[in-house]
Amino acid sequence: MDLFGQLFAQVQAFVFENSVEPLIHILNWDNWLELAFDGVEFFLFGTLEVLALYLILRPLEALQPAEKWPSREGVGTDVIYTLLHRLGVVPLFFFIVIQPVADSIDAVMRLNGFIPFTLERLFPVLSNQPTATFFAYLVILDFAAYWQHRLQHRLNWWWALHALHHSQQRMSLWTDDRNHLMDDVLGALWFACIALVIGVPPSQFLFLALLTRFLQSLAHANIKLSFGSWGDRLLVSPHFHRVHHGIKLGHEGERQGCNFAVLFPVWDILFRSARFDPYEGPTGILDQRTGRDYGRGFWSQQKLGFQRLLQVLTQSPQK
Q1: How would DSSP label each residue in 177-231?
Q2: How many CA atoms lie within 13 Å of 246's alpha carbon, on the beta-carbon side?
Q3: How far, in Å, CA of 238 to CA of 259, rounded?
Q4: Inter-helix orientation angle 33-52/75-86, to 10°
Q5: Are 148 and 275 in contact (CB under 8 A)?
Q6: Rounded to a whole number, what is the distance in angstroms from the first to the last CA of the chain?
Q7: Strands (DSSP E) found in the chain
Q8: What are the angstrom distances between the C-alpha of 186 and each of 166, 178, 199?
Q9: Nearest Cα to 313, choosing from 159, 148, 150, 154?
Q10: 268, 236 in Cβ contact below 8 A?
């Protein structure tokens, strides 16, 4: 992993120095040099992710699909979402907007004597165990992601946005990033608040971060795959997550959904939201069968999401 990180840093520096930095000087945007360097990292990292997704998961979808479709209509829009997120456009926007606010709040908290804890301070033995520290933070953040996801289903105004993600009736390896931009903003704020309390988890483990995001894409892929009775209780599989997206199960079912876990099903087991029974039915939202439109293209999906949110907030009848 150290070798991977070093090689990645060298490629990032080469691309930045030979392509991006000269252009910034020409445009006289020197104040953006640091952000541009981070942007190169986002882009290269995302390129690796997209290549891994396509080269590994796409053949599996073709060989062992969970559901056979007459066409791949609608999947192309999900590709747009994936590229916007994985190649750094959306993350950089959030960094520009949210990071200054988070930094200001952090400064105020520290001036008033609150210093965010770190696992290394609580458990000094982790100071020399960077990989173990990463996984410890991963468990904490996955626990937070479980409750964020559950609230997305429980709170009607949040569901109005999150419904876009569930409206995909042809789930594929590209579906993970299919989210309303306002939903993404709320998610970024959620984890920014957590970072203010516990400190920021290690970010230098590029390979491990790539692996966790890959697993989230695998969970959404159109692959008939279970990790077995015990495996599905240890790690979210495509089958486990497909139940979450199932019509009458994912949102409309008992407890307003099931299988909310992002990586580790243990949270669903502990909080009694797990379902391990077989399911090979369709995905989507029940009201799509009665004609409700969630949009076919990126902009129409974003527009309709805002309209659903306004309808909930103003308590006007849904169309």
Answers
A1: G---HHHHHHHHHHHHHHHHHH-PPP---HHHHHHHHHHHHHHHSS-----HHHH
A2: 23
A3: 11
A4: 140
A5: no
A6: 52
A7: none
A8: 17, 15, 19
A9: 159
A10: no
Per-residue DSSP letter, 42: H
Contacts of 277 (CB under 8 A, 6+ apart): 243
- What are the backbone angles phi and psi of residue 50, rounded to the nearest 5°? -65, -40
How would you write the pLDDT of the chain (319 residues) with one tens digit per residue?
567 678 888 888 998 889 888 888 888 888 888 878 888 888 888 898 899 899 999 999 999 999 998 888 889 999 999 999 888 777 777 666 666 777 777 777 778 777 767 777 777 777 777 778 888 888 888 999 999 999 999 999 999 999 999 999 999 999 999 999 999 989 888 887 787 777 666 555 556 667 788 999 999 999 999 999 999 999 999 999 999 999 887 776 555 789 999 999 999 999 999 999 888 788 999 889 888 999 999 999 999 999 999 999 998 555 4
Report the alpha-carbon distance of residue 267 to residue 235 in Å, rounded: 11
Angle in degrees, CA 214, 220, 223, rounded to 5: 100
Cα 141 from Cα 213, distance rounded (Å): 13
Q: 274: which DSSP letter?
A: -
Helix, strand, coil fractions of the chain, as percent rounded to 5: 70, 0, 30
Q: What angle do CA 207, 210, 215 make, to 5 degrees?
A: 125
CB atoms near residue 315 (< 10 Å):
7
- Beta-bridge mates of residue 283: 246
The β-bridge partners of 260 are: none
Question: Residue 278: exposed, middle, or buried by beta-carbon count in 10 A (0-12, 13-18, 19+)?
Answer: exposed
Ordered DSSP codes for 132-153? HHHHHHHHHHHHHHHHHHHHHH
